[in-house]
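Sample entry follows:

_____
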Amino acid sequence: MGTLGGGKGLDMPALNADRRSFAVSPRAPFAPREPFFPGAPRPPLLPATPLGPEGPVTPAGPRSPFSPLLPCSPFSPCFPSAPEIPSTPLPLLPFTPASPEKRAKCEGKKKIHTISIGLVYRWRGITNRKGKG
């Protein structure tokens, strides 16, 4: 007669039960008999949020390489700085597609439209449709 498991060296609890022996196998892993908890039970983990109770969570301060805040960013507490304002206000200029001299020569909307089309043709390097470069 052959051995249980076909002689392949199988050593499982089911095979030990068939042999009527309840001894622990020497090849069984060392496992504790009772659950082991090293300290007090921990509170359940809360879902992660990008904003904590005091604002954005920084792993180890704003100077940490893992921090999303740069050391000199405006939200960083290391150096609060006022936003820079230009010394002189910049004037807002209206959009002028044609030069004022050409616009003064035109009298109606049709001429302005014709000049703007001519500027587009010159910009693209296309000669006038009538053959006058």
User: Anything to note?
Assistant: The beta strands are 51-52, 55-56. Residues 106-111 have pLDDT under 50 and may be disordered. Residues 100-126 form one domain.
